[in-house]
Amino acid sequence: MSAGPDQPPDRVDADVLPLHPAARDDADTDARAPLRMLPPAEYDRVGIVLVSRSRALAQATLHLAVGLLTGPAPAPVAAVGRDAEGVVAAARQVDEGVGVALLCDLDETAHELVALLERAEELALPFPIRFCDAPLVEGAVPAIATAAAGGDLAAVVEAAEDAYRVRKTDNHHRPPV
Q1: CATH topology for the 41-163 domain
Q2: Do 114 and 133 contact (CB within 8 A), yes or no?
Q3: Least enclosed by CB within 10 Å: which of 4, 48, 51, 103?
């Protein structure tokens, strides 16, 4: 079924990174693949979409964050470039019915995501869906861990946004100017 000019397409070939990629040759590391979900958990989890101007950065962030998990299976996570159709498709794919959190890299990408959220109903985005005002890498790790542990959407967003409060160095040991 084809979508009309004002309707989102039924299926978009989005740049969605699988949680556990199938074995493949090293030369084909950037191949497109659909998101494959892990076996259903005992509870639905918040889905997370990592959006970046550089799809490779979003993918690397996903691999890093999921690789750091030591507990439960990761929540559904997608890594995409910033094109609107890819973001919409990824949000739909990771939605388990309890919410979707969006994280991004740069302010330009953030403005595009906020504009998409303003058209959420028109684009048939999952509900609820929230934008996380957080740094991509530092926010993704706690957001994915919180979602994997079963946190609700508010907890996932708060975990991501708390990344702004994390200091990388002690205030008493500032580098010389």
Answers
A1: Rossmann fold (3.40.50)
A2: no
A3: 4
